[in-house]
Write a structure and sequence with these properties.
The protein has three helices and six strands, in the order H-H-E-E-H-E-E-E-E. The chain has 143 residues and is an alpha+beta fold.
């Protein structure tokens, strides 16, 4: 009898596991997309400090052609320079999120509209880490 109950419990858990994983994955994607909306609003409002606070304390930003910006202060400085150069528009479109535990990888496309109206499109990869219930950028790279 115990063996039948155990077999039934294992079979039920195995059948439901993909649905639980999908729910968790959807929740992670939703949280990342919310963080991206805060990121965009912070950039467009010229608040580089708020942008920097979306990153982990040990984060690394790898911008094309530049040296890595390591840590929140360096990342906030990077974004302040970008804001000062003029950003009229910014959009981030998540293509995919893959999550496991407290880490997630996001791929997507970005579009930046410079102050002079020039549009720059790029692809990005962000590794996110869940810290105290919040998803923060751990590694940020784009082309």
């Amino acid at each position: 009898m115990k063996s039948t109950k155990l077999s039934l419990a294992v079979a039920l858990a195995a059948a439901l596991w993909p649905f639980a994983w999908a729910d968790e994955s959807d929740a992670v994607r939703d949280a990342i997309q919310m963080a991206n909306r805060v990121f965009i609003a912070s950039v467009l409002h010229g608040d580089a400090q708020a942008v920097g606070n979306l990153y982990s304390v040990d984060a690394v930003l790898l911008a094309p052609g530049g040296e890595p910006a390591k840590g929140r202060a360096a990342i906030a400085t990077f974004w302040q320079k970008s804001i000062d150069a003029g950003i009229k528009g910014l959009s981030l479109a998540t293509d995919d999120v893959v999550a496991s535990g407290d880490l997630a990888a996001e791929t997507g496309t970005a579009q930046i509209v410079a102050g002079d109206g020039k549009v720059e499109n790029s692809h990005y990869v962000v590794v996110w880490r869940r810290e105290e219930g919040h998803w923060r950028l751990l590694r940020d790279i784009w082309n």
